[in-house]
Amino acid sequence: MQSNQSTELLFELSHAGRRCHRLPACDVPVGDAKTLLPAEELSDAPPLPEVAESDLIRHFVNLSKRNMSIDTNFYPLGSCTMKYNPKRHERLAALPGMANIHPLQTDASSQGMLYMLWEMQNILAEIAGLDAVSLQPAAGAQGELTALLVAAAYFRDRKEPRKRVLIPDSAHGTNPASASIAGFEAVAIKSDARGLVDMDDLKAKLDDNTAAFMITNPNTLGLFDHQIADITKLVHAQGALVYLDGANMNAILGVTRPGDFGVDMMHYNVHKTFTGPHGAGGPGSGPIAVRTHLAPFLPAPQVAKHGDQFHLDYDRPKSIGRVRSFFGNVGILLRGYCYIRTLGPAGLREVTDNAVLNANYLLARLKGAFEVPHGDRCMHEFVASAWGLKREKQISAMDIAKRLLDFGYHAPTVYFPLVVREAMMIEPTETESKETLDAFADTMMKIRDEDADFLHHAPHTLSISRPDEIKAAKEPILRWTP
Amino acid sequence: MPAFYRYPLPNGRGSDFLDVASPRRGFSLSYILNTHADQEAMLHTIGARSVEDLFKNIPDGLRLKRPLRVPPALTEIELQQHIGELCKRNQSADDAVCFLGGGSYDHFIPAVVDVVAARSEYYTAYTPYQAEASQGSLQAFFEYQTLIAQLTGMEVANASLYEGGSAVAESVLMALAIHPDRSRVLVAESVHPEYRRTLGTYLANLPVQIVTLSTPEGFLDPDELRKSVNDNTLCVIVQHPNFFGALEEVEAIGKLCHEKGGLFVVSFDPISLGLLKRPGQYGADIAVAEGQCLGNPMVYGGPYLGIMACRQEFVRKMPGRLVGQTVDRNGKRCWVLTLQTREQHIRREKATSNICTNQGLFALRAAAYLAALGPNGLRETAELCLRKAHYLSGLLKVIPGISLRFDRPFFKEFTVQVPGDVSAWLERLLKAGYHAGLELGRWYPSLHDCITIAVTEKRTRQELDGLASAFHAEIKGM
Ligand SMILES: Cc1ncc(COP(=O)(O)O)c(C=O)c1O
Fold it and tell me: A335 and A276: one domain?
């Protein structure tokens, strides 16, 4: 039962004189603002809405029902690893002994926090098969930028400034965007017919002006590029670094380690692989791991241990500096730590086994009905295509995505990666059952056979139909006005 | 190699410190639903003999032939005991009264904020790419954007950046997109040192120079700016109130900046806007902030909330997600992510920023917080901070040996000068039950004898009197 009560905008609910939060009377004998600050510094209060507590709660609770979420729906959104978010993490992260710690309080008064972070540095180094970790980046994209800044500093230190970063055309958009901000020219490398790195194109573009090759492995098609050993050999032969976009780590935990397949630097998405909740778009956490020769350039501080005491080590003269204030997205790192501590070594491996099993099962169920251009086996996700359907019946990936919503499934990632036409990128994750996957597959088949015109108008049962995105961009309304 | 590079694992067991882990077990709790029978059935459908078979694309030579060396699994009970032990090794703001600030503050968080953010329809959703299935988040972010615009007096706000430091860096990337022909970035030394470090790091390989303007009197003297600002000035960055707590001459600075055609970037304290003039009222072009104070816990530095607002004319150069209002096919009002051609998933290397995942849940918290306070609550909160900070400064400055370091108007933070070694001071004050303040010498060697103290609306007169007595006792004991 969906309620529309109080779902108008907060500003429309506003009623002068209403109040939710009230403050104690001032208990100190000093004058008011007018006596303490020059008049020209002061303003009237900002024109915020005025709502009562019950208004506010009914508003946000009823609005929340207009969302799909992992806790309510299967969410096979490729590349995003929408796995279940354990509830114990929320409870533990809210403990005052974790939540109420100021980032600049002394090391001696944050030993428990530093212990956890130190453990995370070590655990993430082990899973990566790399030597040193920075927990500072706030999300995957910031991890990419941080690592590329580390690469730039490394080459500057060697007095070999290099200007290019090579990136497969199937890569996520953050890769080239991060390369630009780090001051590099982003050069696209083609994918071959199998969806893997086109080795000829790589060889043609790789030179001694290349700072790094950024690879996503398994890649965004859900394929492990088995050429990886040759690729890293080629890249290293030019003195360049291999960067791994670790968004897909769910596919390889304990099976293979980036450091073992030749990677020099990588980022994690703790909010994906280690189930920090996505929060409708964040926060995330994007730690990076690097080899020893790159460690001096990592951001400061790092957690260090001396005897049985932990401290923040700022004494890092070659460090790139920092990419944000304070330590990092600690609340998400703490959830990741709780997750890894719950699973243990066997559990991490089970995650990957079942993530890959679930994806392959769904692929097997769907491949008769939909094209899957890149083979009939995958890692943790696969990319199906609606190209055939589109030509035959004018049914697009978007139509299928929207219709799935009617059946209570979140849509797959559509139109990404760019190398597949009418792409539908499906990642079930390990926290779904066979029954759920079967029901989803059955629904996909059913939709495939529905009337095209009916699909063009999907969804039919949600609180809204398809929004006019062109109007939104042409005449942008980005805030409410009276 | 420093000790932290490798995980010490005597006999493959867990940690060497504080650990409640039981011996390695044969089970895990990995939230997996597949039973053995399910797995068999699935493998049959796939046509694979074993799960192992599914990994055959990974060359054998690259495979890890041993279990990961991570600590053994813990049940929920054990995990809670373990984290509980860690909590005991932290002295939280509940254990010692918190006067620490510098961008992260012990403000009060109304219960409604936690209740809203605990709705798992919000916190377990992804970025609202499928608008029809995400109207809840989208409307909440549209409300957040509006609330930030109202708060700052700016025309538009985005749906969040990571935090206050990278928000400053992003504002310069944005300025560069607006004025690609300019290259001088002027930043006051009174801006948060970690924000400035972040800025330097982000811009290290881009064609700009950063000029730091010194602030010996605890604020940026407009005359100092006049000497440095020129036709090549891309932007001028100040923080108001600044890192020392003092107010800046924002109006004069904005004017000088605009005379040379530069962009005026201000990093503000959201709570201060209950009282102080809004960035939009004194001519800011881009206003950024750390939004932790808007209903977000301190959690040792993050996740927080990067706030960014700007003039309408610059919106197409803005980083990050924007939610816009539109209509659906039936003409019903609704919300979508919009102006996405600025963003990395469309523009790749030409995007205005690389940001993808942002701080959505914390934008929601800030929206709930601002709605809970309303104009009067925000004003009263700001006024309590202001008055209590002034009360405390009044108590401290009359203690012989202690003085206010700067003679400037301030809001909720102020800087005192003390005799002797500051870190020893802070250590002793912590023993007395106070996280008393920030040791400024960490960032400003010339201010090695200074402490910056932050006072929020939560501090009671008793706590303020208590801290003053503790300072007094220290001076007497010297
Ligand atoms: C393959 C890939 N790389 C990078 C990213 C960027 O990570 P984040 O969103 O955490 O910044 C994503 C996530 O969306 C991704 O899927």
Answer: yes
Using the predicted structure, report yes or no on whether residue B156 has a pLDDT greater than 90: yes
DSSP state of B201: H
For chain A, how many structural domains are there in total? 2
Number of H helices, E strands in chain A: 17, 12
pLDDT exceeds cutoff 80 at B167: yes
Buried b (16+ CB within 10 A) or exposed e, B91-115: bbbebbbbbbbbbbbbbbbbebbee
pLDDT above 90 (res A362): yes
Distance in angstroms (rounded) separating the CA atoms of residues B186 and B170 = 15
Please say if the pLDDT value at position B7 is more than 60: no
Query: Is B72 near chain A, with CB under 8 Å?
Result: yes
Last residue of a domain, one of B370, B390, B418: B370
Q: Which residue has the tokens 């960055």?
A: B237
Q: What is the pTM of this model?
A: 0.96
Pairing of strands B97-98, A423-426: unpaired
Phi, psi of A242 (to 5 degrees): -105, 125
Domain that holds residue A220: 91-342
The answer to whether A189 and A216 are in contact (CB under 8 A) is no
Residue B292, SS3? Answer: coil
**How many inter-chain contacts (A to B, CB under 8 Å) are there?**
754
Could you give the CA distance from residue A206 to residue A226 in angstroms, rounded to a whole number?
A: 19
Residue A298 falls within a domain, yes or no?
yes
Judge whether A193 is closer than 8 Å to chain B, CB to CB.
Answer: no
Stretch B389-408: mean pLDDT, rounded? 97
User: With an 8 Å Cβ cutoff, are A43 and B277 in contact?
Assistant: yes
pLDDT tier at A1, thresholds 50, 70, 90? confident
Residue where a domain terminates, one of B53, B86, B119:
B86
Does the pLDDT at position A430 exceed 50? yes
**A362 lies in some domain:** yes
B13 CB-contact burial (10 Å; exposed 0-12 / middle 13-18 / buried 19+): middle
Q: Is A326 within 8 Å of chain B by CB? A: yes
Please give the pLDDT value at position B30: 76
A67/B121 Cβ within 8 A: yes
**With bands split at pLDDT 50, 70 and 90, how would you rate the model's confidence at B28?**
low
Residue-level pLDDT at B29 = 64
Q: What percent of chain B has pLDDT over 70?
A: 94
Distance between CA atoms of residues A4 and A65, nearest Å: 10
Task: Write out pLDDT tens, residues A271-280.
Answer: 999 999 999 9
Rounded distance between C-alpha atoms, residue B330 and residue A224, angstroms: 45
User: How far apart are alpha carbons A221 and A363 in whole angstroms?
Assistant: 12
Out of A26, A141, A321, closest to residue B354 by CB: A141
Alpha-carbon gap, residue B361 to B5, rounded angstroms = 33
| Prediction ipTM score | 0.98
d(CA A264, CA A243): 6
CATH number at residue A281: 3.40.640.10
Q: Which pLDDT belongs to residue B5?
A: 28
